Every structure is written in structure tokens, then in C-alpha cells.
Amino acid sequence: MDSLYLLIPVALVLVALGIKLLLWAIDNGQYEDLDKEAWRILAEDRESDPKKTDSQVSGDD
Amino acid sequence: MAEHAQDVTVKPKACYHCGEAVPAGVRLEIDISGEARSMCCPGCMAVAGMITSNGLENFYRQRSAYSERPVEGENLDTEKFLIYDQQELAENFSQYEENGDLTARLLLGGITCAACTWLIEQTLSPIDGVQQVAVNLQQSRLDIRFDPETLKLSEVFARVEALGYRAQPFQTSARKEQQRDEYRSDLRRLGVAGFGMMQVGMFAVALHAGDIQGIEEQYQGLLRGFSLLVSSFIVYYSAGTFFQTAWRHLKRGALVMDLPVALAIGLAWLASAWATFTGTGQVYFDSVVMFTFFLLLGRFLEARVRQRHAMTWFDAESTLPDAVRVKRASGWTTIARSQLVKGDVALVQAGQTIPADARVLNGESAVREDTFNGEHLPRSVVEADTVYAGTVNVEAALQIEVQGSYADSRLAALQRSVEVAETEKPQLAKMADRIASWFVAGVLLITSATALIWWQIAPEQALWVSLSVLVISCPCALALATPAALTSAASALRAGGVIVRGENALETLSRTTHLLFDKTGTLTEGSLTVQTLRLLSPLPKSEVLKLCAGLQHWSNHPVGGAFTTVEDAVTFTNVDYTVGAGIEGQYADQSYRMGSEQFCRQICPDLPPLPEEPLYWVALCQGGTAIAWIGLNDQLREEAPGVVAQARDGGLQVGLLTGDSSPQGPLLARELGINDIYIGLEPQQKMQRVQQLQNESAVVAMVGDGLNDAPVLSLADTSFAVAGATDLARTQADFVIVGGNLAAVTNTWKKAIACRRIILQNFAWALGYNLSAIPLAASGHVPPWAAAIGMSLSSLLVVANSLRLNRSSLNREERLG
Questions:
Q1: Is A3 on the interface with B (CB under 8 A)?
Q2: Is residue B649 within a helix (H) or strand (E), and if so which, with residue range?
């Protein structure tokens, strides 16, 4: 049971990491247009370079 | 998605691109994915050709709605975009990045589904110099980053326009920014609370298991300690908003739902923290965090419904063109509208919108002023007449002398009256708010009474029992009751072509007592159709129609629209158009005239007098022989009688408010069975009538269309706008009927009533649960963990009940269909 002293802090670090990621995603505008993203993931891209149609441009301003 | 796409493709004789009927005699075909598809007009043809030649046929397979029909003529004029290459104009919506790239924001018109965003991104991204492209579907916004050395801003506009979308600079406003920031911070709080809930929940499971089967004190202390750590962060980060709101209102002496929430969270957290430090009693960190999460979820859902379509709002100025042709010493040049000054001479082609209030210098034409009077028949203008910004020049080019800036224009006055009407609109308190303050007062009373009584009986229990009362009465289900039902109803309505934009719109609509309609464009189609033909010669009806269609083919006048469905129109030569009078042309060595009585009588003195029926009459003559009187009419919408009857049967007072003073109004009202008729009303009088009803404590729902109704729509308690394919920004209403099907009015009304019923059920359940559990808790029989489970189940039930709104709509539509 002593392992708890290590495992719980590790879990907390992971949670903190998760929260950090979530906040980054929100500030990055990734939750701004949920309808489109839901559709986009199913759409086939043309052979084009996928980086270019990344929806990150909208980010912060 | 695939099913939608199929629906779009199978309709016979519809344009493959925009879905409008292909006019008879038009044979435009294009090869898309190996099949020949018919097009309705050269505009659609050009756009479809553009899409296929870029290898983007996938667009047609993936879209879930037809595209908008591109505007003909004007869209080919790319010169108008050149103004955006001017630094001072571009600065408003673009900025330079550190490496010299330019980022620009454009507002796009005509985005109908997610596939449109794909199409635009795929078309723009391969262009040389483009670094990044992203289209935001919800806001119809394009963000593009490119190298201004290789690509010009005007070129971006032109490319977007070539795809059949209308591009204009995106205006950021403080309100939009604020909305976005609120959305983001709501989401942050909710997300963090969610993470915290999972973590604290995990500890709580261990602690509860420990309660049952025994746990060593050091591990209990450890788990409690970490629970305290996580929940402290959540209380500070996520629940902080409750404390702030409660305090802000308390300072003004108002009791809000946030007060017991803040009390419960604060007390439970404090007491649990105390128990952790002293190693005695119970901890309820899981309840604290769970409360926070569910309450935030309710708020978030509610805010999302509210904001979703409120992204755009009434902006009359956006209807004006950005670029204007003006006369300068060096000749005609294109400048930005913002650079127009009094005394400038501008050129307005047929079909263009007049950019400023002005006086006609040169030319004869007719202007359609539906912006101000709602009528679709144009007013003739000649030299020295005044024309207004926002009206459309219909017949021929005009040279105008600008009279003043936008702020002085009639259109700006309309915008201001909308804003004034907004503030005068009666505010009906939200049901939840009305219940809340009573509920809050009750909860606080009961809690203090419980604490007081337990203090007498067993002082060491007092805090925990009163906390149980606070926890069990915590209005999670109550807080979800309204937003869950509204979200569900709004998404059901969206599927039926109605966009809900107003904040309390559904709730207000369910209490409506009066339903008022505008006439032109609302109860009627808003365009002319042939009602009767008075044949004056042996020529059969079908031949007469073919002649009319052949002549009207050359005209921009709304009369022309009545004949576009006629097949095999005759081809005329030497066609000559006389503004404000009619049209003449040669066919088979005969000269024909069609138009006003006066115009035709010039060559045909035998023309019988104008028939008496109240219709819009035009004559057709072949040389000196009268052929026919054609009676045109703005036809009643097919579904209008049903809608009026349903509303009346449902107990609503139905009325008609129209600006038209012709006998058409009463005639139509009688046909529909409307008794409450007001004709020939100025917009101001319409507003007075609505205000008068409101003073008699009526709840008024107004149905209208277009800009001219905007003030009265904002004044009414709740409002519908029948919008064709026009921009949402041009309509000011709580409900926007996108498909133009009037039946949506009564459907929405029924949905609103159903929604109200569901909300009441939710309230009944939530209150009933809370009220029956409070005595149990007050007598010390409910441990807080049981209260927390009960609360979650209660919330789930409320959500499940609300989802019924979504399902029942489908069934009803199936039955109707």
C-alpha cells in the first residue's frame, strides 16, 4: 500500500498535464467550431498537403 | 451525411449545383464525376466548372445542402475588389506578421454546410503564396495567411467569389470578442471541473470503500489530503464564478440561485477541510466537485444555445456595396464607399445597390425600395429625384450625386430605430429566475432552521445535517431543467429549418397571445405571378404567354420573373426597353409592345380600358391589335391558409399589419379569415400598434421579412423572419425561417409549448425531489454521499426527459409527410 505515496502524486501530475493540454486546446481555438470539426474528420482530403488546411490559423489574436 | 447527399442529387430537373428548378429551354450541362448534370444558369455552370476543373468533385458527394445560386453579372466584375489592395482599407481586417506574411479575415456569404468550408480550403490552399487557410463554419469566417508579394488580397476575394461565395471584410466588434472570451472561459472552468471530478471521484471511491471495510488512518489521511488539494483548486478555479455572482447580487440585495450554491460549496469545502485537518467527521469533496461540474454544465449548455446563432446580428450597413464607381477629373475610377463625400458623382449599374442617399443627376430607372416599404414593385425615378442608400437600382444605369454620409442616411435611421426598439421591448422574466429567488429564500430559511434546531439537540451534528440539507436542496436538476429542454428543442427546430436566436425566445413564444403577420413576402411569395389573362384576340393563351416570356426575357423588372417558367419562349429581335413604360421587339415581321396602358395605347388606340380587378395589369399589343391584358399578382403562399387556421384554432389572435394600402390586403385577409387588419401602415405605425397591444398585456409574436420590418420585429415580444437565402445579418428576429416555409411558424409555436411543458415537468420533478428529500435530510437521515447520488440521478432524468423534445418532432413530421 506504500506505493500509494508514489502513485497518487503521479496521477496528479498526469491530471495537471491533461488540464494543461485542455487549456492549450481551448486557447488555440480548437473548440470554436465544433460542427465543422465533426464533419472534417470524416471528409477525405484531396491528395494535398494536410498541413495547409489545418484549422490553427484562427488561434489567438 | 451520405443520405443527405443522396436527397440532394435525386430531385429531377433541379440544378445540380444550387437546387433551383432548371428553367424550361435552358440546356446547360456539365460533366461531374462521369455523369452529365444539368445547370440552371451560366453562374452555376461557371462555379461547377471551376470546382470540377480543380478536381474537387468530392464536394458534391459530401455536401448536405445545396449551394447558393451565384449572383449573375456582378460577380464577374473583379475590379471592385481592387479597392482592398489599398493599405488603409485592408488594415481594417488584415495585419502583417513578423515574417512579412499577411493574415486576413473575410466574412463569407453562402456557406450552407461543412462541405463548403472544405471546398474553400481545398481551393485556396494550393495557390502560390498561401500559407494557411481555415474557414470557420459557425461564423462563416475565412482566415487566410499568405505572402503579399506573390498574391494580392483582391485576388483572394476574386477566387472566393469565383466559387460562388460572397466575400466581404470581417468586422470584429467588441461584442463578438467578448462572446468568444466568455465561451472560452466557460469551457475552461467546465473542463477543469470535469478533470477534478474524475480525480476526486477516484479518491472518494477508495474512501467510501474504506468506510465500509475499514481503512488505516494514515491512508485515509493521505486520500483526504489529496482530495483537499484537488478540490481546493476546483473550488478556486471553477466555482469561483458562483461566489462572484452571488456576492455581486447580494450587494444589490438580490437573491440568486448562485447564493445557496456558493454557500453549499463553500461550507461543504470548509467543513471537509476541517475534518481533514482534525482527522474527524466526514469529507464531502466529491460532492463539492460534482456540484460544481453539473452546475457549470447546465450553464454552458444554456450559453451555447444562446450564442450559437447570435454570432451575427442586425447590421444594415453591411447591405451596402464596398466599392463604388465615381467620377474624378481623370475619368471613372473605383473607390471604397467609406471614401465617398458629399457631392461625389457615382455610377450605379442596373442590379446594383445604391451606396448612399443621393440625387439622380442623369438617367432614368426604377429603384426597388423593399428595404423601406417592403414592396417588391419598384418606384420610377428620373433626374433630380432622390434615391436612398440600400435600395436596388433595377432597370438602367444611373448617375447620382451623393448627398451625405452614411450616418445621415435613411438606412442609418432604420438601424437606429431597430436599436431603440430593442431597448423598448418588454422584458419578461425568465421562468427559472422567477422560481429561483423564492427557492433560494426557502432553502436558506430551512437550512438555518435546521441548524438552529440541531444546535439545541446535538450541537456536534448541527453543521453536518444543515450541510446535508444544502447539498440535497442544491438545484442541479433545477439548473439543468431549462437549458436542457431549450437545447433539445432548438436542435429539433434547426433540423426543421428554423434557427433560434433569441435568448428567451421559446419561452416567450409559448405564452404568445397575438400572432401578427406582415403581408408582402411573408403571407405572400413576394414575387409576381400571372393571375388572369384577358384575351382580346383569337390568339390562344399558350401563344400569348410565349410572346410575353420572349419579351420579358430582356427585362430586369419584377414582371419578368412571372414568365420565367414558360417553355419555348419566342425569340425577339430589335428589342427596345423604355424605362418605366415597357418593352418592344420584332418577331416574324411584326412589332410587339408590352407594358403600361399608356405605352401600349401609343401604337394601339383600340386597347380596351384597364380592367377593374385590383391586380397589376400589363397590356400586350401586336402593332395596332390588342392581344391581351395580363393580370399579375403577388400570390399567397401555399401553406399560409393552413398556418392561419392552425394558429386560430390554437387560441391565438391573428392579425395583419401591412404597409401596402391597396385593396389586396383586406381581400387576402378575408380569404385567410383574419379579422384584425391594419393596412397602409408606416413602419412607425406598425410599432405603435404592437406597443398598444403590449400595453393591453398581450404577448405579441410578429412574423415579417426583410429590413423594413426590422424595427417592429425587434419590438415584438418574439419574432419570426422569413428569410430566403439572404444573409442572417440582414434579419432581426428571434426565429429565422431559413427554408421560407411559413408552416414553420406554427410548428415552432407548438414546439415552444411542448418545450414549456417539458420544462414544467422538469421543474416539478426537481422541486418534488428536493422538497421530499429535504425533510429526510433535515431529520438527519440522509448522509451527503447518498444526496450526491440522488442528485446525479435526478439530473440525468431531467436530461432524458428533455431529449424527448427532439424525438417527438421527427414523429410529427413523418405523420405530416
A1: no
A2: helix B640-649
Cβ–Cβ gap A54/B58 under 8 Å: no
User: Which pairing describes strands B166-169 and B102-109: parallel, antiparallel, or unpaired?
Assistant: antiparallel
Nearest-5° Cα angle at A10, A5 to A14: 155
Residue B585, SS3?
strand
Window 5-34 of A: residues touching B by CB (8 A cutoff) are: 5, 8, 11-12, 15, 18-19, 22-23, 26-27, 31-34
Would you call A1 an interface residue with chain B, using a CB distance cutoff of 8 Å? yes
State the average pLDDT for chain B: 81
Q: What is the DSSP secondary structure assignment for residue B332, as one 8-state letter?
A: E
Q: What's the rounded Cα separation, in Å, for the pair A50 and A27?
A: 22
Angle, helices B240-251/B258-278, rounded to nearest 10 degrees? 130
Spatial distance between the Cα atoms of B447 and B464, rounded to a whole number of angstroms:
11
Tally of CB atoms within 10 A around B430: 14
Q: Return the pLDDT at B310.
A: 53
Residue B307 has pLDDT above 70, yes or no: no
Instruction: Tell whether B103 is within 8 A of chain A (Cβ).
Output: yes
The alpha carbon of residue A58 is apart from the nearest alpha carbon of chain B, in Å, by: 6
- Calpha distance B378→B350 (Å, rounded): 12
Triad B206, B212, B215: Cα angle to 5°: 60
- Phi-psi domain of B113 (left: phi exceeds 0; alpha: psi -120 through 50; beta: other): beta
Is B137 in contact with A49 (Cβ distance < 8 A)? Answer: no
Convert the pLDDT of each residue in B405-448 to its tens digit: 888 888 888 777 777 776 776 665 566 666 666 777 787 788 88
Q: Is B173 on the interface with A (CB under 8 A)?
A: no
pLDDT at B179 over 50: yes
Q: Flag whether the ipTM exceeds 0.90.
A: no
- For B117, the closest of A19, A36, A52 (CB atoms) is A36
Cell numbers standing for residue B502: 433569441
Q: What are B686's three cell numbers?
A: 406598425
Please spell the DSSP secondary structure of B764-807, one letter per residue: HHHHHHHHHHHHHHHTT---HHHHHHHHHHHHHHHHHHHHHHHH
Give the span between the Cα atoms of B762 and B489, in whole angstroms. Answer: 14
Dist. CA B503–CA B305, nearest whole Å: 8
**Strand B700-704 and strand B514-517: pairing?**
parallel
Angle between helices B784-816 and B743-778 (to 10 degrees): 160
User: Which of B607, B591, B596, B608 shows the shortest CA–CA distance to B547?
Assistant: B591
Q: Where are the beta strands (DSSP E) in B536-678?
A: 573-578, 582-587, 590-595, 616-622, 625-636, 653-657, 676-678
| A27/B131 CB distance under 8 A | no
Cβ separation B222–A22 shorter than 8 A: no
Using the Cα atoms of residue B681, residue B685, residue B687 and residue B690 in order, give the sign of their dihedral.
Answer: negative
Closest residue of chain A to B1, computed from CA coordinates: A39
- Tell me the chain A residues in contact with residue B199 when contact means C-beta distances shorter than 8 Å: 11-12, 15
B257-266, B473-482, B491-500, B740-749: segment of lowest average pLDDT: B473-482
Provide the β-strand partners of residue B617: B631
Gap between the Cα atoms of B95 and B788, Å rounded: 52
Q: Measured between CB atoms, does B76 come within 8 Å of chain A?
A: no
Chain B residues with CB-CB distance to A11 below 8 A: 199, 202
Report residue B704 CA to chain centroid gap.
14
Question: Pick from A34, A35, A46: which is nearest to B56 by CB?
Answer: A46
Name chain B contacts of A38, Cβ cutoff 8 Å: 114
Distance to chain B for A6, nearest Cα, Å: 11
Q: C-alpha grid cell for residue B119? A: 471546398
pLDDT tens-place string over residues B194-210:
999 999 988 888 887 88
